[in-house]
From TrEMBL, chains A, B, C, D:
ACT domain span: 7-86
Its job: Catalyzes the hydrolysis of 10-formyltetrahydrofolate (formyl-FH4) to formate and tetrahydrofolate (FH4).
GO biological process, one term: 'de novo' IMP biosynthetic process
Alphabetical UniProt keywords: Hydrolase, One-carbon metabolism, Purine biosynthesis
Alphabetized GO MF terms: formyltetrahydrofolate deformylase activity
Protein name: Formyltetrahydrofolate deformylase
Organism name: Methyloradius palustris
PANTHER family, per database record: FORMYLTETRAHYDROFOLATE DEFORMYLASE (PTHR42706), FORMYLTETRAHYDROFOLATE DEFORMYLASE 2, MITOCHONDRIAL (PTHR42706:SF1)
Gene designation per UniProt: purU
Top-level taxon: Bacteria
Alphabetized SUPFAM superfamilies for the sequence: ACT-like (SSF55021), Formyltransferase (SSF53328)
Lineage: Bacteria, Pseudomonadati, Pseudomonadota, Betaproteobacteria, Nitrosomonadales
Reaction catalysis annotation: (6R)-10-formyltetrahydrofolate + H2O = (6S)-5,6,7,8-tetrahydrofolate + formate + H(+)
Pathway annotation: Purine metabolism; IMP biosynthesis via de novo pathway; formate from 10-formyl-5,6,7,8-tetrahydrofolate: step 1/1
Similarity comment: family membership: Belongs to the PurU family.
Length: 285, 285, 285, 285
């Protein structure tokens, strides 16, 4: 029952004939299209598309796609990626002490909501080790000592390399990554921030939301870029609060937001639904 | 600045090559695609598509479209409609005494949110006549006397015919239409029901919601079919209530839902975003 | 840091002087009120109140409350309950094979969100035994064979009795309880139904929601009464769906609703925030 | 059917006996309490209360309240206000060219949702004059010329004075008020800002939301203080957007948010449900 599909993600300058070109290519190669969605950004003259087809019975296969598609890609000046459902993305989850996002991701993974492998959980604490064990995920404790972040990150990089990690999920990992870390994994690190960005960038957003007297709290999942909390937003959601809610209530309500907003982002990334441009995300249906 | 586009809505059995066929047709005819969205229903083996292109500079024009498209339509056994942005749909709004949905629609129409003409407002009361006048819309009072619904509807049909009405919007029109009325305007009557259907079908839904002690109230816009409140749902939304809310509060909160849920349905219909099948709606982006 | 408070829940016919009577009683006895909330139902001439005070430094204590409060209770014809924060309610969770609500409740319990004890998890399957063990909760497998429901329920009752159970939570327990079961635990069984009741009462609500083409799905937590899915509603919430969502998507999205809607109901019950009348709930702030 | 009630709003240092004192006072004076709600802020040691009673049949009347209540007010060091349902607050609405919030407020006023008088609409443009006339509200055009804001505000103050204005509603009034204006009407000016503050303070929030690529847009109603967009927040709400939404779509969706968020704030203010402290609002039920 595991599906066997290919997903093509395309970005190129907008012009006439792109859809015809791609659709005709797939048709000539006997591909049965399962989903297709596209977006045109008139202001930036950009065309973006996601198309998924059944590899069973299709003449285009992973090993001949690049060669066959080259003519079209060149004609339209495309940037493209081909993703295969049977090559499951490999996630590393990084976490500190709060375990609610981690527990949520692991439960979803176990239920089959997240079609990925999770070869490692890395934490600067040992609090979540038992949870990782319960779900059968290898746990690595990498302490982050003051002034020794570089050493810690080197150990993390070694793990990512040896495990062939595709995506790093910061599931309430309370450390700021170095610029080197961020540069090393462009568009491959997803973070959950506990505010509706761009409100309350930085530390202690629930405390500042409480101070400001807002009536809504939020959470934001985004790709990590070099500027803190300024990366492309993938998903946001909010919950209503009132004057009765103290900081602790905000934190408790926020946990539900964080779980849901992070898990959606991870799922969409895994399902190859996200394209990035102009520091924004396109989320394909 | 009024746009000059054509929108093609297609339904056909799903098979390979449909997108390629349509896209290639548009490309060969020099059409600049502005939006395209499609949906496949695997269970029903159906393919549905909406594609909109700029008529300026395109070789396919309203008067030659059918002829040119015929070969593709036949090949794929398509049901299709072509809609032109410059042929604005003509709405009749029917209303009784509650004027909140009417006032909302008229204000949106005036602001340019609804790209339609409204040649007539019909009511079985005179309460909304002044409002209609303010917005410059002709108002017709057609009384619906007991046992004389057929006469009233005959007068309504005459108006619809003479005014070339495309869509009938029941903006809290508190009369049940006869089966003849409904049959005469298939997929062309939109109603707002003040509950989240299928809960509270029929009369006095707010009172029954209050009785049942629900924590959410809702509103549903749908196409009218012969079975009361069973037509294809276009849009729904809800608001939260509490034990403090009395029936009057439900009614008041509900007005905001009704306004928004009805106006979205009308706008999507006008923008040719809706396709119907299996008593359901597909709402294209 | 565990609080030591008493919560008084009062229902009585509405009349002048009730608040003055209660407030004066608490003041004379040196009670420091932490929270107070009240509700008046004019239609039913009912007064309902929840008041919580600090037992530390208060002259009224659990053992003398009834005697001292008797005069006021009698004067106003009150029905009242006194709940103590240090006597944590004891929950039995019943579950079948779907474990998402159970995993959610156990994680919240562990995080301190739910101030209760959970001395037992009962299931008619063994699927959740490992999860129960992980969280250190005793697991009892009680098979429910066809035509032997009475025997199974007798075993359940024995467990509830021996464990002094206060509240039974049906966390997707896919069995219908017998009338005897329901009668035995009035206002003490909370169920999660996977629709926005009263829509889709009964079996397979997601399938029927999909069939009907609704644009919102919901979940409802309620007290179980003898009529299926007709008990007092505690909480409801919804999520938006589109024509792209298949039944499996509804089920997946619904899991998040079920988790949140059930956990809120359980928390409010545990925090003694709920009063019942006229088959409705009052949820005190 | 117009009600005849008094509403007492109280703020004082928290201590034992306050509720007993107020409740006993009302009881001794034969007042029938219709609604009571209170809030305690432990951190700031503050007690806040709203209590509404029926003046019919009560011994405490507007003209003897201050004298009779003085002993209690003094004992507990209270700040208090007494509001009478039959003295309807008098609103001035200020608006520029966008008329959606104005049209919404006027329609709600006419439907009886807003229990206030609106003796004047002031605008720096003439666009909304016809709408004001339709609803029978006097319209004053006060131009705000560059470098002549003081003159314009003087004319506005004269109107407010002569009309005995209680509350000034900025219904998308695109001018920044002078510090003198703000100081003159403390806690008596309500503004609608078209973002979920504190995100996108200042000009062009929809454009900046679009630039940032947020997935939610919002609106915030707040009291105006001397620092732009930093006043106490009364209400906020959001709507979901996607990559398909252009700035114009954000503006259109935002209009619905602005209408609802502003009208709620105005209604709560009129119903004397709002108390202010620490630059925050308490919204009583």
């Amino acid at each position: 029952m595991t599906k066997n599909t290919a997903t093509l993600l395309v970005t190129c300058p907008d012009q006439k004939g792109i859809v015809a070109g791609i659709a005709d290519f797939l048709y000539r190669n006997g591909a049965n299209i399962l989903h297709a969605d596209q977006h045109q950004d008139a202001e930036n003259n950009l065309f973006l598309m996601r198309v998924e087809w059944d590899l069973n019975g299709s003449a285009i296969q992973p090993d001949n796609f690049a060669e066959r598609f080259d003519e079209i890609a060149t004609r339209f000046d495309m940037t493209w990626q081909l993703k295969l459902s049977q090559k499951r993305p490999r996630l590393a989850i990084m976490v500190s002490q709060y375990d609610h996002c981690l527990a949520d991701l692991l439960h979803r993974h176990q239920s089959g909501e997240l079609a990925c492998d999770i070869p490692v959980i890395i934490s600067n604490h040992r609090d979540t080790e038992r949870l990782a064990n319960f779900y059968g995920i290898p746990f690595h404790h990498i302490e982050v000592k003051k002034d020794q972040k570089a050493e810690a990150e080197a150990a993390q990089f070694a793990l990512f390399d040896s495990l062939d990690i595709d995506l790093i999920v910061l599931a309430r990992y309370m450390q700021i990554l170095s610029p080197e870390f961020v540069k090393r994994y462009p568009e491959r690190i997803i973070n959950i921030h506990h505010s509706f960005l761009p409100a309350f960038i930085g530390a202690r957003p629930y405390h500042r939301a409480f101070e400001r007297g807002v009536k809504l709290i939020g959470a934001t999942s985004h790709y990590v870029t070099e500027v803190l909390d300024e990366g492309p937003i993938i998903e946001q959601d909010i919950d209503r609060i009132s004057h009765r809610d103290q900081v602790e209530d905000l934190i408790q309500k926020g946990r539900d937001l964080e779980r849901i907003v992070l898990s959606r982002a991870v799922r969409w990334h895994i399902e190859n639904r996200i394209l990035l441009y102009a520091n924004k995300t396109v989320i394909f249906d």
